[in-house]
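User:
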Amino acid sequence: MDPVAFTIAYYVLAYGWPIYLPVLVLVAGTLLGAVLVAIVGAIRTGFRHGDPVDDDVDVTEFFEAQSH
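Assistant: Predicted structure:
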């Protein structure tokens, strides 16, 4: 590697961390939050199973009740 490029890369990595660290924290925090929300949503959806018999409506009874 060219010594000038090595020197520039060294200074960017050595003295540029105050810029990289907050960006890394914000990106990592956002990704972690999205993963946690997805996991909690999947767990809550898995626990919430309605009884299909309770939701079933007899169509004939419904329309007979409406016509009277």
